[in-house]
Design brief:
Elements (H helix, E strand, L loop, with lengths): L22 E5 L4 H12 L3 E6 L2 H11 L4 E5 L5 H11 L4 E4 L14 H29 L2 E5 L12 H21 L5 E7 L5 H6 L2 H9 L9 H13 L9 E4 L14
Parallel strand pairs: 1-2, 1-4, 2-3, 4-5, 5-6, 6-7
Helix pairs in contact: 1-2, 1-8, 3-4, 4-5
The structure holds ligand LOHRUJSQ and NADPH dihydro-nicotinamide-adenine-dinucleotide phosphate.
NADPH dihydro-nicotinamide-adenine-dinucleotide phosphate binds next to helix 1 and helix 6.
Length: 264
Amino acid sequence: MIAPRPTAQECKVLPAAALRDRLALVTGAGSGIGRAVALRLLELGASVVGVGRRAQRLAETAELAKTSRFRYQALDLRDRPAAAEFVAGLGGLDLLVNNAGGQFVAPAAEISRRGFDAVTDLNLTAQASLLLAARPGLAARGGRVVNLSLSAPDRGLPGHAHSAAARAGIAALTRSLARRWRAEDIRLFCLAPGTVLTAGAGEELPAGDLARIVARTPLGRDTTPGEVAEWVAALGSGAADAVSGALIEVDGGAGLVAAAALPG
Ligand SMILES: CCCCCCC/C=C/C(=O)SCCNC(=O)CCNC(=O)[C@H](O)C(C)(C)COP(=O)(O)OP(=O)(O)OC[C@H]1O[C@@H](n2cnc3c(N)ncnc32)[C@H](O)[C@@H]1OP(=O)(O)O
Ligand SMILES: NC(=O)C1=CN([C@@H]2O[C@H](COP(=O)(O)OP(=O)(O)OC[C@H]3O[C@@H](n4cnc5c(N)ncnc54)[C@H](OP(=O)(O)O)[C@@H]3O)[C@@H](O)[C@H]2O)C=CC1
């Protein structure tokens, strides 16, 4: 049985102004999930700073946002000094959404050292650096962090050995920092979507593979960008402050079953 896929409107369950007067930094805000998150946080009253490498994509998000509460900066997050300088310049920060990421699909034996480094750098080390740079700003405001991961990295993802290692790493880092930083009133969460049919996912895997992965998902459907955005907003709003350091899998139960067949 296929569970009903909510419309964009049906995903919106938080009260209006739930994030009024908050400042959020969203990485990868020029496309897919990051754009959906940025737009939803704005809708809920936050001011949002979006970053990504391509200014044109961020400008498109700004056009959709239609509010001066959105500003953006082109930035390669793997340039750690530049990223650290940028985040320090923001001052107090209520929410950091570590969303920028991605990988290529390849059998583990065909991933070169540089390929492994490129993926772990983007999905783990760059996220970790940004977190450390944002720490003073987050501590100043009792801020929250949502680190994006990928569902079930610890249960074996064919073709994703490099990414699974990085994604499991970010989940572990989230837990470690949640424990250490609670003294500074910073809360951290790790949010792990299953399959979200963004253009980025379409570049990573052929449509047929994505369809097979979705078909094997217990709920029989993909996760929508609107659902992910609402989870991020809820975690950022304080509604989930009884939770600390958790890995939350928003994946239609994909992590409960064996991964679909892909090379490697
Ligand atoms: C069962 C699994 C379920 C999964 C469901 C689907 C879930 C979807 C999840 C998503 O994350 S969707 C988001 C999708 N968007 C992306 O993934 C795009 C992002 N990808 C990239 O931007 C790049 O691939 C990268 C990971 C950042 C690497 O870019 P970079 O510019 O740093 O790399 P290069 O300089 O080009 O290459 C470095 C190194 O990597 C090797 N390499 C690159 N591509 C491949 C490949 N397809 N296969 C094998 N190796 C690759 C490249 O050859 C270089 O290594 P050397 O040759 O120099 O040794
Ligand atoms: N779609 C899915 O099924 C799933 C996605 N995810 C994760 O969710 C996140 C968003 O995915 P999605 O929206 O689908 O994919 P996209 O490819 O659309 O998003 C990735 C974003 O990251 C930005 N980015 C990539 N590299 C860098 C960099 N070095 N510096 C700054 N920004 C960078 C990209 O912008 P630019 O290229 O302009 O830099 C882009 O906006 C990713 O981390 C992804 O891995 C997790 C589970 C499932």
